Amino acid sequence: MKQRNALLKAVILIALSVPAWSAALAGTYSASDADVYVHKKDWNGLLGYSKAWTQAEPDNPTGWFYLGKIHAAVFKRPKDAVAPLQRAVALKPDWSEAWNVLGQAYLDLGRRKEAIDATRRAAEQSPRDMGYWNRLAVVYLSANKPGAAIKALDEGQRSAGPYMSAYDWYVLGNGFKELNQYPKAIGAYKQCLGMNARLAEAWNNLGVAEEKTGNSKDALADYQRAASLGNDLGQRNYSDLQNDIRQAQFAEQVRQLTPRSNDPCRTPGAPECLQQIFRNMEHERKEGLRERVWVVFLLFTSSEAST
Fold this sequence. Notes:
The chain is mainly α. It has a domain at 257-307. It is built from 17 helices and no strands. The chain has helices at residues 2-17, 19-26, 31-40, 43-56, 61-74, 78-91, 96-108, 112-125, 130-142, 146-160, 166-178, 182-195, 200-212, 216-228, 232-256, 271-286, 293-305.
């Protein structure tokens, strides 16, 4: 009798602590039970639970989704993920998340056309979710189709724009920036900052986009704003751009001293030229610019060599 009671207690404890046992005993499965494994990061347990779920309820798309996703995202076995995910979207064709994971599995297998088709299905099923459009752009870019990637972001902005959060606009700006669409990136970052002016990363990246378009004045202001919010990269970019501007100004001064036919500097290394350059250099130093002396000689030598 004591042995039977001990065995019964053990079964009860297992059933209460492990969702797979409770599901097996009750004959039911659920996403909430599956998520217990996710929260515990018990991936082998989740794999076993998902397999049992698909066997018990073969027409339930959620079980197939969990089985495919754990193969694709956790165990990095895209080949094993494809069939379960195909089953999931066949049972529930409007499931964006399942299409998206299936697209990633195809991409990991190098099946780019199928990856594009699946990821587009995800975006089309949830057109107000900019995340799927961003993902579609990434897939197009992996297939060496930057033009299609830009169109995907444009399409996403039209469809999801009214529903986007500040972070969505920030991510969109990053996408446009990576595709060298700097005016569009600037517009997206400004939308983001209009909703959350304290997002330091957005100020910094706006500065990068402004700098790429040649707008150094606004770029400096953006970097400075990012730095004021504690962004170290913004501070470095601000300092680097200031130095670039000063070096460009100094180089222009040296260029203007390039020897001409009626210039006493027409003789390489003429003292008059060097004295003028050093006078300019001292003036710049007092303004706060610190340049190494060898830069002067390098620029001077280059100017002489070109005459």
